[in-house]
Input
Amino acid sequence: MYDLLIIGGGISAMVSAIIAKRRGKSVIMLEKNDKIGKKLLATGNGKCNMANIMPVENKYNTDFVYPILKQYSLERQLSFYASIGLLTKEVDSRYYPYSEQASSVLNALREELTKLGVEIVLNTEAKRIEKGFEVCGYRAKKVLLATGSRATFGADSGYLYEKFGHLNSALRPALVPMLTANDNLKGLRGVRLKAKVKLFADNRFVGECYDEVIFKDNGVSGTAIFNLSQKLARINYKNARLTLDLMPEYTIDECRDVVRKLDGIEGIFHKEIVNNIRRTTGNDINKMVEKIKCYVLDNAKLGSVELAQVMSGGLAVKDFDILTLESKLCKGLYASGEVLDVDGECGGYNVMWAVASGMAVGENV
Ligand SMILES: Cc1cc2nc3c(=O)[nH]c(=O)nc-3n(C[C@H](O)[C@H](O)[C@H](O)COP(=O)(O)OP(=O)(O)OC[C@H]3O[C@@H](n4cnc5c(N)ncnc54)[C@H](O)[C@@H]3O)c2cc1C
Output
């Protein structure tokens, strides 16, 4: 009989296991893959953007996260990393391992798990939780579901708690490129720029973000698009549209003055943007300025799960204690990380939540 059985071997599970084991609890972890931490290796393009120095307020879909993020703050997370022998650094408000290798984070976590003697059972997928509790033949006083999501790869295993009365809402890809009508994309593949992007659904304003946009054959990607996809994933709509302000620092009148003064847009934008705009506007300065200030991409849709960094949806947070993450419906059950209906913006906020929530469970089981 273990004190804690953890389903999943992602970062949330590993942090929780380390903290619980340091407190003297016996811990077993079941992972369906042949390795733990596979998704962690893919984060931040293999560099692992693990946290952010900016305030966390308004970075998530729900206020539920804030008490835990306050308790297990950036400082506490950084001291946790130091306690497993990992050096971190800040680059433009984002935290990374000093090596800029996600594998350094995984190695440090794995070594600590081994040092502490946490039992890890690989190639073992939990398909049922028997009351009491028993999972895959292992018995435990408490169970933590830390199964993440199937974004890019992985599994949606929130259904395991449905039999205990937990709501597990439909999942949609979030932090994902968007597909759009491609009539405005000709020649732009691979072009990157910073723009103020607005999202409208059925002609209603949904949100805006000023950040990087990357053009693709069939749509757009980049941080601005990812952050807006998180909002689109939460609403029902028939038609969505993106508008890009390519010179947000200038008002429309200032923009017209600049274009007139420079006698064109060649000295302002990437040549493919120039060609694209010129194709429909010719030499008409007013039309050029209109397009610069409101470049329309119609028929915007969320890209596929295989391209998503997180899933929006999951286990309803209202059924879990706001500080301990223990189920309010069945004593002894806990959930942490992305399996809960929590998603954050780009910038390290999702790993931050996975770690903070893992710490909360580890300290309270
Ligand atoms: C390509 C990519 C890039 C990303 N980049 C960033 C980034 O830079 N910064 C950031 O903050 N976030 C990033 N994210 C998001 C972040 O990686 C996740 O939010 C975070 O890893 C979630 O951690 P977790 O421990 O909750 O779940 P996961 O890391 O998904 O781990 C869950 C584990 O549970 C296992 N599992 C699932 N079901 C079962 C079952 N039934 N039985 C046994 N095992 C099971 C899975 O195999 C998996 O190993 C990125 C995601 C992707 C896909």
Observations:
- The mean pLDDT is 96.
